[in-house]
């Protein structure tokens, strides 16, 4: 396994999720910070409420704030691992997206099936300097999105995928 410019190349296939001769490009590690911030903000109100209830009532009620803190710590441990597992690869005829640690997923999107490509970034994503690329295909069930790309890379990927999709679609 060698690394060049943030991409990982596998010399031989290691299973259905590691095709041969594919250069995987990881997403930005800033995605982990954005997701952890969103989780922390989501759990902040319930945590404050359960602490208030625990202070005003019986000592056994402290179980609920403790459970929320445990959930937060588990999420802070898990999210960076999930982000490291999110990678994509551009091949001649298709785009590969893989994600997941325990339940792995590999999505293969042929360029000829792409209808349009969206780039989006909400307020939190913009604060962390990341964007998402969403691929829309003829199939409704395709979950082809890449979160956590630097905005320049998202724009480059959007333009490249759109031009490759047009070229493949014109050949039909």
UniProtKB/TrEMBL annotation:
Alphabetical keyword list: Membrane, Transmembrane, Transmembrane helix
Mark the transmembrane ranges.
38-56, 62-79
In terms of Pfam families, this protein maps to: bPH_2
Q: Does the keyword Transmembrane apply?
A: yes
- Organism whose genome encodes this protein: Cellulomonas marina
Read off the InterPro entries from this record: YdbS-like_PH
Enumerate the spans annotated as YdbS-like PH domain.
84-161
Task: Please state what the protein is called.
Answer: YdbS-like PH domain-containing protein
* PANTHER family hit by this protein: TRANSMEMBRANE PROTEIN-RELATED, UPF0699 TRANSMEMBRANE PROTEIN YDBS
